[in-house]
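pasting for ref
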Amino acid sequence: MAEFRSERERLSEEKIEMNRRMEDYRAECESKMKQEEAELKNRMESFRAECDRRMRQEQQDMARISEELHAKAAADVLKEQQAAERRLADIRSQTEEQLRMEREVSDSVRHVLRELPPLQAAMELGDLACLDTELEKWRAEVLSDRFGDCRGVVDAVVNMAKERLMTWKSVEHTWKDIIREVERLPGSLSLLTYQSQRLFRALKEAQLTNLDLRRGDASSVDRALEVLLVWAEKAMTCKNSVQELIIRKVIFWPQLGSFDFADLDICLRLVDRPETGHHQVFLSRAKVLVENKAVAPKDLKGLLGHIETMLFFLKYAKSEDLFLTHQEFKKQSKSLNPVVASYLAWAEREYSPGNELVQLSQSQSLLDGIDVAAVLENLRQPPPRSARGRLALGPSPGESLTIFREIFYQWAVVMRKQFNLLVLPHHTQVVCLLAFQRFLEAPQNATNQNVVRALIAQVGTGEGKSMIVAALAIFVVVALKKKVHVVVDDETLLDRDFSTFRKLFESFQVAGEDGKKEPLRAVLCVSEERLASAKGDAGLVARVDPDANICYCEAKHVQSFYASIARNEQRDFDSYSGRVLILDEVDALVIDEEPNEPFVYPNEELGKMATEVAQALLQGAKPEQLSKFRSSGHPAAARVVHEITKEWERGQRMVSGEDFVYAKETGRYCALQSGRVNPKAWSLALECRNFNDGLSKEIFYQERLFVMSRPRVFRKYHRILGLSGSIGSEPERKFLQDIYRAAFFEVPPFLKTCKGSPFHEPSPAKLGGMQQPVYVESTVEAQTARIAEVALEARERVPVLIIARDRLHADQLVESLHVAARSRGLGAASEDVVRSLSRTLYESEPEQWKENLNRATMPLGASDGRNKSWRVTVTDRRGGRGTDYRVDDPDVDAGGGLLLIPALVPASQREWTQFLGRTARQDRRGQYCAVLCSKDYDAQASKFKERLPDRSTGLEAVRAILNWGDRETMERIKGSAALYNCGVRMNELCEEVFGKKSALLKDPAAREKLVDVCQRMRWMSVAEIDQAFTRLPAFEPGKVPTEARDLGRPEVTPTVSAGIPGTPLGTTRALPMSGAPKVVMFCLDWSASMKSNDTRTHLNRFQTCVQCILRILQDQVKDNDLVGVVCFGPNVQTIIPPTPKGIGGSQLHSRIAGLQPANAGGTCFYDAVLECLRTLGQPQLAPADALRWLVCLTDGDDLGSSRPNARGELVNNMLAAGKAPAGLNMVMITVGALKMENVRVIQSWVKHVKNQGGEAAHLGDKDATGIAKAFEVVAEFLAAEVGGAIEC
């Protein structure tokens, strides 16, 4: 109990203590609350007071600001009012000032119109004294007062006059200095020649600056004339009146142009002959020519040479024998095509002995006016028909010559008016023309492979080939009523021939479309620059005129004519049946390298797209940021973006002065080709560079849409007539026979048909220490020493011409021969003895080049023949063709003729014939001795495993080299045969598209397919080309007839190295390529669910996929593209590793076609995608810039992928981290309703690929009927990569 009470007491005490504490705590809380209430009350009162204070302050501030704003607004209004008043005052003042200035300008213009013309007249007249006097009137302090704002115009004219005056004074000073120096003529000819050259150059300089020396000091010009006359008297062998006339004409001609002192020297030497004996004829004609005021000095050289040639032909006119002519033609009968033999036999019947065009008697003078008139009358009138001819059916012999008689007559009349000389055709020319006539009139059967479609005659240099061409052209126009294209592939010769025969063409008329007679229209194709300077010459055109009867042009113009047909709205490819092609030299027909020419066409729509892409790049966009352009939906969008991106970078790397230059005429960069500006050349890279540098506002975009086969275009002509100095080698003849159905014959030299007349061919000369016609030295040094030995010994008897390998070799030979000549005691004279005719000299010093050519065959030493020797001239291969080395000294003939020393034998038989044609011209002798270096032929010797004969004493080495050349030609022709046939087929199909299916060109998808095949045709066979054209809608290439033979693919380049699955390490495999290949991986679901037959076709899901893939493989995958297939179900299998279609095409097709779905379930979709990405990322799989395509199809959610990739994490990480294969593009096809989380995974992949610049899409369809449509979208993606033309 005690314990209980004790415990109760304790508890009571605790309770009392607790109550006490509670009371204390309550009291403390009440105290704190009262204290806090007091503090809060104080803070509230302080806050209220502060707010009242701030409100009063803000009210005061607002009142102040309001007052300030009102004041500012009032000030602004006042300022505006004042400014408006000032502007009105200024406008009023400006108007008054403008009216005043206009009045002053009017006054200034009146002053200019009154006072400037005398100054301009002085400049135009070339009057130095008058110009000096006029300039005294134009003081600077006066200009500002009299001309006001016109001062700039007047200043320009006055400054130009001052510059002209300074130039004229400088020219006059030089002129007077030279005149003073020649007051006493130099004693030596060399010094006199030097001073004469200086005088002539000063005279030309005065002409170039428009200074009239006669107005200033007429006596000085007379003195210059005296000096040149004295020089001519000393320099020429025979003084005559024609030389004086030439010098007078030159001195007083207002503008000499390109005529220089060397040309004057040449003209004087052409007439350097005595005025007695037979030379009187030449000089009398030359005198009339020189006295003709219409003949400019620049034309004298050619015209004087023409007179010389005409007299040469007249010399042998009476010696020509028609019987001998036919005998010479018959000598080739064994080698002739029987058809051509029949042509020549017919020509013999028509033009038989006794039926000559004219009967020339020995008593007739072909220089007497009366006799010449009788000959011309006889020439024009055919012989009377015999009684037998009147009774017999058909024309009498000779009647076929009616048109040719008129041509010969008109030509003779034209030449007689110009030169007062008779021109008659050779018998050889007449027979040749008749053979061509028979060929032209012969019936043709296009299906008969033995029918001759081209006839080619070999006509030697100087045998009147140009006349035959002109006569044939007129015959075709007048007799056959067809148009003619005459091709001369040398601009100088083309101009010469047209100018020579232009008046002959103008003398004929043809029936127009209305039946009325109208002048025959002949035109010449010239450059744009020449046409612009021609001042309205109707006979000159920049391109082939389709309405002209005769068009002289180069081969490039014939190609551009076809291109113009292909580009016209009315594409009449059959118009060639009304045209005949005549070729002066058949080089253009022999195409052994590149037989095809692609045409590019502008595309405005793609040009706008290209401009937008270029604008984005200009603004700093990266290639991966151009996806919006790629996804524009246009079939060519991806290609345009790819090309612009690539060419933009290439354009930035282009170097000014090397790749392009700025052309002021066009205001933009123009391409440099072979060192020359070509404003017409188009380059996408240069378009980008112009755009980037602000020189153009848009990209001019073109694409390749047409391929022309040059041989096929030539074959389209009604007939081909060829005349060539050399038909060429046996392989070339075979090529012409196979491609053009050509036949050949040779026209014998007319001297062979003259009784008792000399005819000489170049003969091998045994010269040098070993007395051989051909030397083959082992080193260049030994070759040079041998050339020096042969040339410097032979020059004692005859002039020597050396043909070097190239211009560099020619320059080196000249230096070496100078040294050798000095070592033989010639000293300073060696510079004159050995002269250069290299292209280097021609380009740097054309006047010196002409002088060297003129002196090449002139003798050194006394004019009476004592101590006479000759020069050694060194030229390059250019000088071995078409350059005339005139020899008229009889002593040269006595020494065997001009000696030709070829330092090489060209591989071409035609070029070798041209080399030999530099000597033995007309009735002169000629000889050659070849000095070769075996090292120049090491490559051929090694190639053919034959040794070049170097110990023989004959021409075995020459024959061996020409034989190697023939074999190389044969290889080139054979090597280009497949490309030729592919080009023919492309040309046929392109014509069909453009001519009859032109609507396809307006379909972007069809157009893109055409671009593709035009780009890839070099790597396609004929069959593959046909197959590619089947992709065009409603186009059936099988219905287009063809001449092409399928010889396989022309090219298989470049190589793809190891790294391609299936290719052993260390090996390479050749791939036909057209730009970088693409890699296409198909990732297909082949689980059991793919067997479902719910596609609403006869095919199940998987079969539909296979058929779509096969179609893509055929249409959208190129031969150089790589294709792979991965299939997935319960596991992942690589069915086909990435394999080039061009190598495994048939196996790819069969393996894909044989795929079957699995029987088990499961869909390891994510693992399959990961495997494909790893495959596409292999480093050596394809070039770095190749596009990689992943095309996947699944018909269900992923079920069975590995745990780390169960939700596509590994794929997502690869794409998000930027570790995806370069150039990746992705198309995901899903069939049926997938879980939303799986859809989001796929869409995230698509987004990653797009962000990295690739093409990507998710194509989801609710059911299997959309599979085919989804693959059509895939096909469009892949087709967008077809390459276009980037240069032309």
